[in-house]
Every structure is written in structure tokens, then in C-alpha cells.
Design a protein that fits this description.
This protein is α/β, with parallel strands linked by helices. It has 2 domains: 67 residues, no CATH class; 178 residues, Rossmann fold (3-Layer(aba) Sandwich). Helix content is 32%, strand content 18%. Helix 1 packs parallel to helix 5 and helix 2 packs across helix 4. The longest helix is centred in the middle third of the chain and has 21 residues. The two termini are 26 Å apart.
Amino acid sequence: MGYGDEIMTTGYAKKLKEKYPNHQIIIGDPQKKVIWYSDIYKNNPNITPVKKFDSNKKFAWVENFPGNRPYISNTNGKQIIWNMKYRSIKGEFYFDAKEKEFADNTIQRFLKNWHKTNLKKYKKIIFIETSRKEKNTKHGLSNRDWGIENWIKFVNKYKKDYLFIQSIHKDSKIINDIYSFRSDFRQACAVMSHCDLFVGWEGGFVQAAAALNIKALALFGGWAHPSVTGYPFHKNIYVAIDKSPCGMLDECAHCKKCRKLINLKLVCSQFEEII
């Protein structure tokens, strides 16, 4: 899950800091004595940066790092076996002044353009994620791809009333005629903090939306279960058929069937309920 893992980790760190307010909270492997750090933790007062860690002072470990994720029971290289008893921990973000300025400027630019080109006011601001940075052949990503054609149809249905924002990167499938911007992940999340709703597939931006108290319409298909990597206060589209949640890392027929069952009518009805 990448960034999503790190966002959830900040939730663990907060809880541990509340329990041990006088301890340094570090992320990593206590057996190997390896501290893990991520940009997601930047400015977080609950997490001690590697450079500031003092082994002579009290400290406590959060054992959530690559290779040891609490929502995974096991993996055989072909499939993730989910820990169905796990429940996602809502994380936190602490943006710095530059990130806030970037987000403010980005939003203001889009609002100015909307008012210049539209006669009526937008109803809400929607942050949408249609594709992932990694190639779709890795980490089950092809099993979590609704298809750009579906996203275009969805956006076209609502773009006259809602201001859609798309965070893009070099591998993005860009939707024309909506507002898009390039940034790193933290900057994108800072922009999301100004939005009313996130719509996209299960992953890091779902965790970000939870951390930022943003409503979300999250597509899960049949790959992962929303009770494990999602949140009950979001609207989650899950396809509960045989083999779900499969966790397959290579493209599979089961997930293909699940994606087909998530049709435009279903997504639109769920969108209209949550918005």
C-alpha cells in the first residue's frame, strides 16, 4: 500500500504517544534495531525523526514497516492473505507552510478558472484518482483499475455541477476538461484537504482522506475488504463474490469479474448518496 501504510502508522504513533507521553516514538524493527522513516511522518510531533533519536532516552517502537504490515496475515509472492481481524487506524498529516501555500494557490487557481468559464457556482469540490504511479502489473494494481473509460463517463456526467480535481504524475491517465495538477504525494494531500469528497480506488488516498476527515467513495472491487483497509465512515464499494477478497498480485479472472460488476450506474448511485 505504500503511502497508505505510512499514514496508518501515524495513527499507531499517536496512540502510543498518548500511552507513553515521555517516550520517543520510533517506527521500525526492534529485533534488527532498524528505524524506518517516511516523508509522511514529516512534522509529526508524535514521531521522533531518525536524526533526533537518542538511544539513551526512553523510547517505544511502532512495529509497522515494509515486510511487517498488521493487515497482512501472510503472503506467498502470488497472493496476500488478509488479516480479517485487523481494522484500519486513522492517521494524521502535519503540513508545513510551503505545502499549505501550494495547496491554497492550486485551489484558488482552479476556483478562479471555474468562475471565469462557468455561469453557475459549483456544488462541491471532488478530488479524483483514476490511476496509480506503479505499473499495473505489480502488486495487484491491474486488479484495482476501474478503467479510464469508466472514469471519463463518470466525470462527464457530473462535471457541469461539480469541480473535479485530478492529481497527476508521469504515468497518469489524464481526464480532459477537468482541473489537474502535478505534485508530490504530500502536496496532493494538502490540496485534498480543501476538497469535499475523494473518489477513487482503495489505496493511499483513501487513507489520506480519512486522516484529513474528508468524505470518500472508495472502490474496493473484490481484491481487498473495506473492513480491513477501509473505514466505516466512508462509502465503500465491495464485491462480495466467491474468492473475495482475493489479494492476488497478478491479474486474475475473479477481479476482472468484480470490476465489471462495478458499473457506472452503481458508482453514480453511491456518489449521489454520499455527496
